């Protein structure tokens, strides 16, 4: 297994909660590799460990045992501030509930990750405008989340995630709050970003037709990878 | 970056105007109380000092009778021996280091002009009195030596007496009745205002000592001798010399105590000023406690703010905010909040002190040092009381924070 060359590598990753009898293994020795440029859907029932896996992939969480490597870095052993830096530099996040700052304009929301990079105001503005243009929100820059539809809010969130030109986009149920038409639009957008920017995408979803947009689908069950199928293999 | 953070905190303060205002109130009241107390206090101190200075600077006042500070039955076991002309003469003849030496006796007496009457402090003295008490004439002239010696019926009046009798008119040359004797006004004394004890220093009539003794007191006693030190001589040096000369002329043997007392007005001024300063400090400290309460208010509201914005903190952490970014954000917010309260408090405190100064007729003496201190202190309160809530926000786990509803 070429784990070293992979963007994301799980080497017998365990994640356990609780103590003694009450101990629960959210992940029970998972091995996994995701290459640069892949668009991966992660599925599984609740409690299957998919969310835990996503948190580890996004460097928000660390394994209890085993090794998680991100870009060849042993990210599971980094302290929280180093992981924050890693997230800021290489990872973008899109959440089910959009998670935009309320009463803050779209442009300011998109600028947020750049502030933590210490980018000058002018550069931040330019990059934010560019990212908003890429997600098709020209003319909505100064709207607050309350003035935007769900689909538009998720586009702002995607612009915020890609404004730093990350290597990896972590999407947690990105279409969970959207209707079918909006879902289709957002998935088209993600597919385009994957194809045009070479952005690696790891997306949790429980909808099969959303997962269909991805090239590869990994199913979790009881803390294990139950299946890992690529469209190319199926085809 | 810091400017961004300040802007951010101003926005979040504006977002909850009412809540921010209520939080500020603690700091506002605390700072306003401290500023008002200290400003009024320093005004009072200045007032007390200038009051005493109005009595005459570097002034010793000799009175008959044993000094009160030695305790004991005082004048009860023996009649108080009054001061006499020869005591004044001895001081004039032998005392060095004095600028002016003036005897004075006084009594509250009814003064009449036309149909108006006024009970006034009538003082018999000589022309050195004005010099000893640093008192100037607005118009007219002091007593001449011959008037002093012969006890002519002439007098100098204070501003209050002038107003009562003459209104806008000119008093010089008019004749007033003092007790049963008549007296020609030859000059008007410069106004001195009220003392800190509410005594009107301008309700006075001065006349030659001999005239006072003969026509009003009916005896030759002298109530006080004012001795003003010259510029080179401190009163502490002058006092023992005065004592030696008086013991000598009054033939007090070494085994007996003084039968007169010497009060040093400079020392009294210092003592009173330091008393007001102590008082001011105490009141300021009490007011300072309310600042502490205000600080706790800020801590409380910052904790609420951190809890309320847990999700926001989660988002910020997820997209790469360092712990210190969150810490700084909330610290700056708390500091801006309490600084704002401090500035409002200073303005209110100064306004209160201004009103109080006008009401109490004391000088309005705002101190830049106190104001700077208040600004610094209110910022410090924000930082100290904002630190714990900010740290709590910074230490949040991003996963839990994002899940927070």
UniProtKB/TrEMBL annotation, chain A:
Domain annotation ABC transporter: ranges: 8-235
GO CC terms in record: membrane protein complex
Keywords: ATP-binding, Cell inner membrane, Cell membrane, Membrane, Nucleotide-binding, Translocase, Transport
Molecular function as annotated in GO: ATP binding; ATP hydrolysis activity; transmembrane transporter activity
Domain of life: Bacteria
InterPro entries to which the protein is assigned, alphabetical: AAA+_ATPase, ABC_transporter-like_ATP-bd, ABC_transporter-like_CS, MacB-like_ATP-bd, P-loop_NTPase
UniProt entry tagged with the keyword Cell membrane: yes
PANTHER family linked: CELL DIVISION ATP-BINDING PROTEIN FTSE (PTHR42798:SF6), LIPOPROTEIN-RELEASING SYSTEM ATP-BINDING PROTEIN LOLD (PTHR42798)
Family per record: Belongs to the ABC transporter superfamily. Macrolide exporter (TC 3.A.1.122) family.
Name of this protein: ABC transporter ATP-binding protein
TrEMBL record, chain B:
The MacB-like periplasmic core domain, residue ranges: 20-244
Protein's organism: Mesorhizobium neociceri
Keyword Transcription regulation: no
Signal peptide: none
A molecular function (GO) term: transmembrane transporter activity
One Pfam family this sequence matches: FtsX
Domain of life of the source: Bacteria
Lineage, top ranks: Bacteria, Pseudomonadati, Pseudomonadota, Alphaproteobacteria, Hyphomicrobiales
Protein name stated in the entry: ABC transporter permease
Protein family according to the UniProt entry: Belongs to the ABC-4 integral membrane protein family.
PANTHER family in the cross-refs: ABC TRANSPORTER PERMEASE YTRF, MEMBRANE COMPONENT OF TRANSPORTER-RELATED
Membrane protein topology class: Multi-pass membrane protein
Membrane-spanning segments: 21-40, 282-306, 327-356, 368-388
Ranges where the ABC3 transporter permease C-terminal domain occurs: 285-398
Matching InterPro entries: ABC3_permease_C, MacB_PCD, Macrolide_Exporter_MacB
GO cellular component: plasma membrane
Keyword annotations: Cell membrane, Membrane, Transmembrane, Transmembrane helix
Record's subcellular location: Cell membrane
């Amino acid at each position: 297994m070429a784990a070293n060359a992979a963007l994301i590598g799980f080497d017998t990753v365990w994640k356990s909660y609780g103590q003694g009898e009450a101990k629960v293994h959210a992940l029970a020795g998972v091995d996994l590799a995701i290459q640069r440029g892949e668009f991966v859907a992660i599925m599984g029932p609740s409690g299957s460990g998919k969310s835990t896996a996503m948190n580890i992939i996004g460097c928000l969480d660390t394994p209890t045992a085993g090794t998680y490597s991100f870009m060849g870095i042993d990210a599971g052993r980094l302290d929280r501030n180093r992981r924050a830096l890693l997230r800021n530099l290489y990872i973008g996040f899109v959440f089910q509930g959009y998670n935009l700052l309320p009463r803050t304009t779209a442009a300011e929301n998109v600028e947020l990750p750049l502030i933590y990079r210490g980018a000058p105001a002018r550069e931040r503005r330019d990059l934010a405008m560019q990212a908003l243009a890429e997600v098709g929100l020209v003319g909505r820059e100064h709207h607050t989340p309350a003035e935007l539809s769900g689909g538009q809010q998720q586009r702002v969130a995607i612009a915020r995630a890609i404004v730093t030109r990350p290597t990896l986009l972590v999407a947690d149920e990105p279409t969970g709050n959207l209707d079918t038409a909006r879902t289709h639009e957002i998935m088209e957008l993600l597919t385009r970003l994957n194809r045009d920017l070479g952005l690696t995408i790891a997306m949790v979803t429980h909808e099969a037709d959303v997962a269909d947009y991805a090239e590869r689908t990994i199913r979790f069950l009881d803390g294990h990878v139950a299946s890992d199928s690529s469209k190319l293999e199926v085809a | 970056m810091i400017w961004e953070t300040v802007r951010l905190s101003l926005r979040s303060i504006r977002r909850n105007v009412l809540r921010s205002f209520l939080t500020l109130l603690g700091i506002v009241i605390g700072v306003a109380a401290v500023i008002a107390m200290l400003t009024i206090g320093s005004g009072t101190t200045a007032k007390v000092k200038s009051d005493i200075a109005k009595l005459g600077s570097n002034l010793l006042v000799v009175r008959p009778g044993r000094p009160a500070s030695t305790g004991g039955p005082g004048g009860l076991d023996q009649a108080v021996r009054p001061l006499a002309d020869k005591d004044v003469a001895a001081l004039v003849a032998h005392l060095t280091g004095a600028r002016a030496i003036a005897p004075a006796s006084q009594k509250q007496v009814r003064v009449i002009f036309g149909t108006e009457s006024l009970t006034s402090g009538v003082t018999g003295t000589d022309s050195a009195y004005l010099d000893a008490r640093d008192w100037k004439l607005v118009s007219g002239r002091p007593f001449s030596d011959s008037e002093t010696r012969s006890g002519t019926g002439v007098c100098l009046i204070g501003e209050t007496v002038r107003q009562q009798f003459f209104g806008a008119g000119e008093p010089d040359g008019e004749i007033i009745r003092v007790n049963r004797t008549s007296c020609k006004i030859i000059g008007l004394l410069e106004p001195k205002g009220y003392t800190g004890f509410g005594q009107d220093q301008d309700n006075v009539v001065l006349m030659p000592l001999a005239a006072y003794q003969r026509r009003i007191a009916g005896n030759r006693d002298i109530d006080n001798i004012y001795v003003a030190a010259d510029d080179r001589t401190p009163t502490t040096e002058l006092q023992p010399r005065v004592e030696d000369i008086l013991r000598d002329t009054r033939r007090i043997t070494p085994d007996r105590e003084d039968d007169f007392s010497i009060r040093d007005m400079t020392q009294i001024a210092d003592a009173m000023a330091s008393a007001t300063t102590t008082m001011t400090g105490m009141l300021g400290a009490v007011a300072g406690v309310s600042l502490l309460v205000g600080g706790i208010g800020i801590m409380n509201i910052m904790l609420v703010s951190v809890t309320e914005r847990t999700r926001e903190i989660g988002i910020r952490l997820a997209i790469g905010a360092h712990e210190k970014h969150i810490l700084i954000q909330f610290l700056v917010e708390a500091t801006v909040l309490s600084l704002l309260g401090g500035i409002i408090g200073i303005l209110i405190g100064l306004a209160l002190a201004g009103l109080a100064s006008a009401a109490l007729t004391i000088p309005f003496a705002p101190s830049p040092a106190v104001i700077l201190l208040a600004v610094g202190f209110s910022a410090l309160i924000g930082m100290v009381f904002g630190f714990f809530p900010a740290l709590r926000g910074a230490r949040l786990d991003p996963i839990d924070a994002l899940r927070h509803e």
